[in-house]
C-alpha cells in the first residue's frame, strides 16, 4: 500500500518535465503585466494618415517675343494644377527599453497630380503625374533625425495618349536639434522641381519654436516666416518653388525634328506670398495663399536628343522663355485620420513631423500646414475633454 | 472644378460643426505647465518627454477602456457581465499602479528624486487648476 502511494507521488523524468513546463507556463501567465492582459487600445504610430488636396493657379503671361515661331504659336502661358496626395504610417519600430527612446517610422506616400499648362494658341494639354513611394524617418533618441524618401512616379500627357515616363525623386536629410529654438538640416535631394533632373544639396535651419513665431529656411524647398496667431490660425509669409518636367504631346507640331510624338515640357516659378491656415478642428485644416510668381521659366526639351542623359540633367532644348512675374493663388485642405501616440514637448518627434511636412510627397512642393503637430494649448475645455486624464477621486 | 469647390465647402462645414474639444489641448497645456515647473535641460527633456508621454498614453488607454466597458446600462447586464466589469475595474486600478511605479522609476533616473516630487506636485496643481476653471465656468 505504502509502496503504491510512493509510486504515485514519485515523479519519473517525463512527469518532471511536464510539471516543469506547467510551472513555467503558470509563472509566465501570472507574471504577465496586468496592462497587457486588459488589452486597452493604444495608437500604434506617431504619424497619422494625412490626405492633402491642393489647387494652384498661376496668372497669364503674354508671350511677346514674336521672333520665335513657337512663341507665336503658343501666344500665352498660364497654369492650373490640382494635387491629391497622402501619407500613411506602415510600421513603427520602437525601442523603449532603455531611457533613450528610439524609433523608426515607415510611411507609404502617394500622389496624383493633374497639371494643365494653358497656351491660348493651342488646345489644353492634361498632364497626369502619379506614384507611390516610401519614406523612412529614424529618430535615434538623441539630438538628430534621419530622413529618407524615395518617390517613383509616372508622367503622361493624357490628352493625346502619349508615351509614359517613369521618374524618381529622392531625398536624404539629417536634421539636428540644438534645442527647441534652433534646428539645422543638411542633406541631398534628387528632384525635378526646378524643371530639370537636379541633384541639389539640402540646407535648412529654423530659428524659433515650431508653435511660436519662427523663421524657416529650407533650401531648395522654401523660406518662410510663420506666425501662429491664435489657436486656430496660422499666418505665414513664404517663398516656395513650384515646377517640374512633364511629357508633352507634339500634336501641335511644336517640334519639327526627328518626328517625335512627344517632348519634355519643363517649368519652374518661385512663388512669394502670404498664406493663412485655418484649423477648425484637430483633424481638419484649410488654407488660402496668394502672391507674386517670379522667375517664371518654361522650356521644351527634345526627348530623343536627350536620351543619352539618362541620369543627368537634360541639355538639348529647342525652346525656352523667361517670363515676367504674374499673380498666383493657392488653396487646399488637409485631413488627418486616426489617432497617434503623444508627442508633447518631444523635440525630436516634433522635428520629425515638421521634416516630413516640409518635404512634400511625390516630388511636389505643397505644405500641409503641419496638421499632425499637437494643437497649441488652449484654455477652452470642458469636463468631457478631461475624463481620461483625471481620476474619479480627483473630482 | 466646381465639384471640388463644393466638396471643399462641405468638408469645412462638416468639420467645423463636429469640432471636438478633445483632450489634445489639455494635454498640451499640461505639458507646458510641467515643463515650466520642473525646468528640464534640453538633454533631460529629450529623454523625459517620450517616457512621460508614453506613460500618459497608456494611462489614458486604460481609463478609456474601463469607461467604454461601463457604457452599457446596469439593468441590461447579466451577472457574468457584472463579474467581468468588477474584475476589469480591479485590474485597471492594479495596472494603473503598476504603470505608475514602473514609469516613475524610469523618470527618476532622468530627473532625480527632488524633481520627481516637483513633478507630482505640478501634476496635482494642474488638475486642481483645471477643475477650478471648469467649476468657475459652470457657476
Give the tally of structural domains of chain A: 2
Q: What is the domain total for the residues of chain B?
A: 1
- The rounded Rg of chain B comes to 21 Å
Largest sheet of chain B: none
Query: How many helices of chain B does DSSP assign?
Result: 4
Main beta sheet of chain A: strand number and arrangement?
A: 14 strands, antiparallel, barrel
What are the secondary-structure elements of chain B, in order, as H or E?
HHHH
> Taking Cα atoms only, what radius of gyration of chain A do you get, to the nearest Å?
28 Å
Regions of chain B with pLDDT < 50 over 5+ consecutive residues? 12-21
Structural summary, described in words:
The complex is a heterodimer of chains A (395) and B (139). Chain A is mostly beta strands and 395 residues long. Chain A has helices spanning 2-9, 13-31, 34-38, 69-74, 347-358; strands at 49-62, 76-95, 102-118, 127-139, 144-157, 165-177, 182-191, 198-207, 214-219, 222-228, 233-249, 262-281, 284-301, 317-323, 326-337. Chain A has a 14-stranded antiparallel barrel with strand order 1-2-3-4-5-6-7-8-9-10-11-12-13-15. In chain A, strand 2 (76-95) and strand 3 form a beta hairpin. The N and C termini of chain A lie far apart (67 Å). With 139 residues, chain B is an all-alpha fold. Chain B has one domain. Chain B contains 4 helices and no strands. The interface between A and B is large, with 62 and 58 residues.
Amino acid at each position: 500500500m505504502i509502496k503504491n502511494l510512493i509510486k504515485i507521488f514519485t515523479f519519473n523524468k517525463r512527469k518532471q518535465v511536464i510539471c516543469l513546463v506547467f510551472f513555467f507556463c503558470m509563472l509566465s501567465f501570472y507574471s504577465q503585466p496586468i496592462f497587457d492582459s486588459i488589452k486597452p487600445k493604444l495608437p500604434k504610430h506617431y504619424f497619422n494618415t494625412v490626405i492633402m488636396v491642393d489647387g494652384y493657379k498661376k496668372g497669364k503671361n503674354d508671350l511677346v517675343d514674336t521672333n520665335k515661331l513657337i512663341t507665336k504659336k503658343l501666344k500665352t502661358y498660364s497654369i492650373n494644377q490640382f494635387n491629391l496626395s497622402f501619407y500613411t504610417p506602415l510600421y513603427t519600430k520602437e525601442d523603449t527599453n532603455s531611457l533613450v527612446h528610439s524609433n523608426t517610422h515607415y510611411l507609404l506616400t502617394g500622389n496624383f497630380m493633374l497639371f494643365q499648362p494653358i497656351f491660348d494658341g493651342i488646345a489644353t494639354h492634361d498632364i497626369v503625374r502619379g506614384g507611390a513611394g516610401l519614406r523612412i524617418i529614424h529618430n535615434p533618441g538623441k539630438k538628430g533625425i534621419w530622413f529618407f524618401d524615395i518617390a517613383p512616379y509616372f508622367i503622361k500627357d493624357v490628352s493625346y495618349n502619349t508615351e509614359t515616363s517613369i521618374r524618381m525623386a529622392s531625398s536624404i536629410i539629417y536634421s539636428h536639434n540644438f534645442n527647441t529654438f534652433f534646428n539645422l538640416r543638411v542633406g541631398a535631394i534628387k528632384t525635378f522641381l526646378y524643371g530639370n533632373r537636379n541633384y541639389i544639396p539640402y540646407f535648412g535651419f529654423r530659428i524659433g519654436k515650431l508653435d511660436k513665431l519662427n523663421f524657416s529656411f529650407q533650401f531648395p524647398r522654401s523660406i518662410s516666416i510663420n506666425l501662429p496667431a491664435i489657436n486656430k490660425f496660422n499666418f505665414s509669409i513664404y517663398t516656395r518653388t513650384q515646377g517640374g518636367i512633364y511629357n508633352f504631346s507634339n500634336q501641335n507640331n511644336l517640334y519639327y525634328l526627328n518626328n517625335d510624338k512627344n517632348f519634355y515640357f519643363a517649368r519652374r516659378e518661385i512663388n512669394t506670398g502670404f498664406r493663412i491656415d485655418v484649423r477648425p478642428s484637430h483633424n481638419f485644416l484649410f488654407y488660402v495663399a496668394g502672391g507674386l510668381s517670379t522667375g517664371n521659366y518654361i522650356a521644351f526639351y527634345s526627348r530623343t536628343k536627350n536620351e543619352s542623359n539618362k541620369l543627368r540633367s537634360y541639355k538639348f532644348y529647342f525652346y525656352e522663355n523667361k517670363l515676367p512675374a504674374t499673380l498666383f493663388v493657392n488653396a487646399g485642405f488637409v485631413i488627418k485620420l486616426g489617432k497617434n501616440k503623444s508627442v508633447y514637448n518631444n523635440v525630436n518627434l516634433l522635428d520629425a513631423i515638421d521634416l516630413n511636412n516640409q518635404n512634400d510627397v511625390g516630388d511636389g512642393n505643397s505644405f500641409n500646414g503641419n496638421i499632425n503637430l499637437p494643437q497649441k494649448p488652449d484654455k477652452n475645455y470642458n469636463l468631457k475633454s478631461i475624463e481620461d486624464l483625471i481620476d474619479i477621486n480627483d473630482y | 472644378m466646381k465639384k471640388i469647390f463644393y466638396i471643399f465647402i462641405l468638408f469645412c462645414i462638416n468639420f467645423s460643426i463636429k469640432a471636438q474639444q478633445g483632450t489634445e489641448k489639455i494635454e498640451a497645456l499640461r505639458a507646458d505647465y510641467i515643463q515650466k515647473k520642473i525646468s528640464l535641460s534640453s538633454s533631460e527633456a529629450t529623454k523625459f518627454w517620450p517616457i512621460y508621454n508614453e506613460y500618459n498614453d497608456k494611462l489614458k488607454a486604460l481609463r478609456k477602456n474601463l469607461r467604454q466597458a461601463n457604457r452599457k446600462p446596469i439593468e441590461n447586464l447579466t451577472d457574468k457581465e457584472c463579474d467581468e466589469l468588477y474584475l476589469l475595474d480591479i485590474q485597471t486600478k492594479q495596472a494603473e499602479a503598476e504603470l505608475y511605479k514602473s514609469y516613475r522609476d524610469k523618470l527618476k533616473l532622468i530627473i532625480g528624486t527632488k524633481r520627481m516630487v516637483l513633478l507630482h506636485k505640478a501634476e496635482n496643481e494642474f488638475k486642481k487648476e483645471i477643475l477650478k476653471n471648469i467649476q468657475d465656468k459652470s457657476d
